[in-house]
Amino acid sequence: MTRSDWLYICRLDDIPASGARVVRIDGRPDIALFRTLDDRVFALHDRCPHKGGPLSQGIVHGARVTCPLHAWVINLDSGRAVEPDVGATACFRVRCENGEVFLNRADARGSTAVAERETCAVA
After folding, report:
1. 8 Å CB contact between 83 and 76
2. What is the pTM of this model?
3. Of 13, 41, 61, 63, whose CB has the highest number of CB atoms within 10 Å?
4. In what order do the strands lie in the sheet with 100-104?
5. What is the average pLDDT value for the chain, to the nearest integer?
6. What is the pLDDT of residues 43-83, one digit of tens each?
7. Which residues, 6+ apart, have CB-to-CB distance to 30 below 8 Å?
8. Count of CB atoms within 10 A of residue 41's CB?
9. How far apart are CA 77 and CA 3, in angstroms?
10. 121: pLDDT confidence band, cut at 50, 70 and 90?
């Protein structure tokens, strides 16, 4: 992928460690950017697959987030619910470069879940 395939979103430091930040692109549904304690960044549609709870308001633990409404646990790397729950929310490819966070332009403008993802650890 070329640099033009990526859309600048924010600085890594703009996302709280072990927390989230919500962005909206071209009026599309909200995208939640999650930052883990080890500075990996993930992006999911900000709606739990169960009842639509705001995942960005959940608790980030490791590479998972717990929905604040009904405690469903969602894998940040795939958007899939942890068993025994079932379902998934859309996830978006994300990358970090020099402390800046980018979303894949095609993912950000669409609403389809993606199977592959790039994560980052910023030194």
Report:
1. no
2. 0.87
3. 41
4. 6-11, 100-104, 94-97
5. 88
6. 999 999 999 999 999 999 999 999 999 999 999 999 999 99
7. 22, 23, 24, 45, 46, 47, 56
8. 26
9. 22
10. very low
Q: 13 is written with which tokens?
A: 């430091």
E strand map for 1-123: 6-11, 19-23, 31-35, 41-45, 59-61, 64-66, 73-75, 91-92, 94-97, 100-104
Q: Could you tell me if 7 and 108 are in contact, meaning their C-beta atoms sit under 8 angstroms apart?
A: yes
Give how far Cα 77 sits from Cα of 26, 44, 81, 113, Å: 24, 9, 11, 11
| Residue bearing tokens 């599309």 | 28
For residue 80, give the amino acid letter: R
Phi–psi pair at 109, nearest 5 degrees: -95, -10
Q: What is the dihedral of CA 67, 45, 81, 12, to 10 degrees?
A: -80
Residue that the structure tokens 């980052």 belong to = 120
Helix (H, G, I), strand (E, B) or coil at 107: helix
Contact 81, 74 (CB under 8 A): yes
Q: How far is CA 27 from the centre of its chain?
A: 17
